[in-house]
Q: What sequence folds into this?
């Protein structure tokens, strides 16, 4: 039998199947899909309404927006060319940038050290007690909802201006965020190795040590790297309120309208973040691939 | 003698295992057969207490094991090693360390947690791997192995526990026929050579007939058959698997795509 007639036959049977389905067409079986066009349109209308209300509350008019746009153009013009002006200032900025990096790195490490035990405490599959679990979760959520910047303002009042306050701000705000991420990694860990170890006569601690820890460590490491990366940005911001690092200089240059120096500092931060991003991506890949 | 007396397990409204009793002499190779959901797995897990029985009593040589806890429970679990359908190895640990998990109950935590296994334990583990022809894989990560290899690692883990009983929960259900034979042969060898009692859940009747000294058939949580494999008639098999006759063949399939005529016509 030739290929063509085979294909023709296949077509014929396919058509026959549809013909049979058409013959037995069912219009009587009800189908209630979860989306209907009405509710989708309603949702879009609601979003537009909320947006307009927001603009009205803030008193934003198109006029102000366009005037602002021109002024932004002026500022960008003043920023060109970005320059530290003198080599002396360049080295001062480099030193401050190093401080920012140190704040981000040390702050994250301190946060991770405290977050690891908290993460285990807040994981449902480790601590079976519902009260402990619930309490730990709520406590983490509460502390987590306070932003790094607010922690920086608090710590400045406790330990004074400078990088130490910045380090503490990063550590306190991230300890809970990391603990929550850790506990989620622990909760999604495969249960089967744990069962295997319990069945071999291992204690609960041994089940955690050998059944869970090897699974979650690479996840922890990857999350810590991501936080170091993102904290490089946060550490710049908290510098603005006086918690050490490059942010202090950035806010100062903006205040005295030295736009070309401010632009240079912004570029320094951008390049640094890009480099850290690249390094952490390579490391994360290496860790997840093989740990 | 492993004695199971009136053991039941209730999950909510369902009795997963319903008043099961059996006495299993030392050295017997027992196959527990039945369809999925018949309670085979729950029964096995109640023996090593991964699942707590709701009622009844399980004892070994007269010693009640249903009330054990703490150290004694761990010691009991050591003595009845379990082999799982999904192997339950630690995927990110290497093969040797997975086998050494079987030595946890013999090793103080200060040694096992930093993985400071004794030379003797390592040698035992390597010997077990060698017995199953996979010593060459000792340094590989467990999750990189094939299913058949992983199950052999799991058997090694069970062996180094120095068990008296092996509980095998569908040990070959995720394996191809060749690997299934390797694994079943290994269990049989352990049973015949060392006289270990083996309790093995199986849903393949062929394997059950080939390897077991005795078959316990379960349906809806109850024991409906308990005898030598030769006594397993078609009638009993049909009852166990609730089968073909009324559930598959006589089912009303209607005239559509599922009718056998159209299937043969298309072929």
A:
């Amino acid at each position: 039998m030739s290929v063509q007639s085979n294909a023709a036959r296949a077509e014929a049977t396919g058509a026959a199947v549809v013909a049979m389905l058409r013959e037995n067409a069912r219009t009587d079986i009800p189908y209630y899909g979860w989306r209907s066009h009405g509710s989708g349109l309603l949702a879009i209308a609601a979003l537009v309404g909320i947006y307009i209300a927001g603009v009205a509350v803030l008193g934003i008019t198109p006029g102000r927006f366009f005037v602002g746009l021109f002024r932004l153009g002026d500022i960008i013009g003043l920023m060109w060319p970005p320059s530290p002006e003198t080599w002396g200032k360049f080295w001062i900025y480099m030193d401050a940038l190093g401080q920012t990096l140190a704040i981000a790195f040390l702050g994250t490490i301190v946060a991770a050290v405290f977050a690891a035990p908290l993460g285990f405490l807040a994981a449902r599959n480790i601590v079976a007690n519902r009260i402990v679990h619930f309490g730990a979760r709520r406590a983490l959520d509460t502390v987590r909802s306070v932003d790094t910047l607010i922690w920086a303002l608090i710590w400045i009042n406790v330990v004074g201006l400078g990088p130490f306050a910045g380090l503490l701000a990063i550590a306190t705000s991230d300890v809970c965020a990391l603990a929550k991420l850790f506990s989620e990694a622990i909760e999604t860990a495969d249960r089967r190795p744990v069962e295997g170890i319990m069945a071999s006569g291992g204690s609960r601690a041994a089940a955690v040590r050998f059944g869970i820890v090897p699974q979650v460590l690479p996840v922890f490491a990857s999350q810590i790297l991501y936080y170091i990366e993102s904290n490089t940005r946060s550490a710049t911001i908290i510098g603005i309120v006086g918690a050490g690092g490059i942010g202090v200089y950035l806010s100062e240059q903006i205040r005295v309208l030295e736009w070309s120096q401010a632009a240079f500092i912004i570029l320094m931060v951008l390049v640094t973040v890009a480099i850290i991003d690249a390094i952490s991506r390579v490391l994360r890949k290496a860790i997840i691939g093989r740990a | 003698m492993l004695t199971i007396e009136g053991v039941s397990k209730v999950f909510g409204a369902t009795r997963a295992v319903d008043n099961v009793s059996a006495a299993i002499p030392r050295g017997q190779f027992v196959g527990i057969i039945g369809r999925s959901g018949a309670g085979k797995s729950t029964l096995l897990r109640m023996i090593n207490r991964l699942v707590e029985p709701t009622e009844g009593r399980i004892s070994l040589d007269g010693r009640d094991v249903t009330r054990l806890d703490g150290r004694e429970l761990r010691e009991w679990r050591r003595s009845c090693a379990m082999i799982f359908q999904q192997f339950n190895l630690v995927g990110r640990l290497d093969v040797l360390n997975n086998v050494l998990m079987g030595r946890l109950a013999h090793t103080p935590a200060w040694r096992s947690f930093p993985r400071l296994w004794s030379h003797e334990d390592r040698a035992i583990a390597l010997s077990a791997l060698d017995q199953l022809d996979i010593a060459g894989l000792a340094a590989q990560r467990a999750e990189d192995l094939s299913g058949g290899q992983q199950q052999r690692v799991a058997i090694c883990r069970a062996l180094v526990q120095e068990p008296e009983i092996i509980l095998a929960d569908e040990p070959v259900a995720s394996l191809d026929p060749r690997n299934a034979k390797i694994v079943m042969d290994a269990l049989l060898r352990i049973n015949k050579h060392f006289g270990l009692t083996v309790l093995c859940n199986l849903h393949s009747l062929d394997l059950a007939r080939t390897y077991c000294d005795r078959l316990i058939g379960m349906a809806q949580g109850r024991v409906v058959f308990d005898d030598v494999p030769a006594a397993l008639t078609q009638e009993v098999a049909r009852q166990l698997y609730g089968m073909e006759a009324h559930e598959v063949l006589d089912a009303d399939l209607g005239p559509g795509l599922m009718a056998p005529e159209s299937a043969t016509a298309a072929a």
